Amino acid sequence: MPSIETGKLISSAIIIRDDRALVFEEKNDVGELKYNLPGGHIEPGETPIDALLREVLEETGMVCEPMSFLQLVVNTWDRNHSVLMYFSVRVAADAVVVLEEGITAQWMTNEDIAELPDDRCVFGIKSALAMVLRNEVLPSTALLLRKGGKQFEWQK
């Protein structure tokens, strides 16, 4: 039986402006061009929120504030797995997007997102985006975090 040799924890952000979501197009780990969201791997010692704030700043140049936990997606393959956590975030209305090299992005409506081909989307982004655009959120207790053995309050 195959064993799990690697695992990735990932935090991703949904940024909404004028009823449009910021959607990336970038290459995945195997070089395929995929639609994705700002976010990335959670480093040792980071909470999912720490990683979310860091990754959004690195990839978009914008400072964000976490608003709601939306969805947890687990991908399992023969030799590895990934756990993606999707959050809605707020950025300043006048924040300017400055993309990290290698990323292109566009502000998409719900209709634009629905038309994206499923096989070119990172799994889970379409359903998480739809939740935000329909103003659906999970209760804050849907995600409990600890850091250094102590509860981490991630929502203000």
TrEMBL record:
This is Nudix hydrolase domain-containing protein. It holds the Pfam family NUDIX. Residues 6-133 form the Nudix hydrolase domain. Keywords: Hydrolase. One of its GO terms (molecular function) is hydrolase activity. It comes from Candidatus Uhrbacteria bacterium GW2011_GWC2_41_11. InterPro entries: Nudix_hydrolase (IPR020476), NUDIX_hydrolase-like_dom_sf (IPR015797), NUDIX_hydrolase_CS (IPR020084), NUDIX_hydrolase_dom (IPR000086). Belongs to the Nudix hydrolase family.
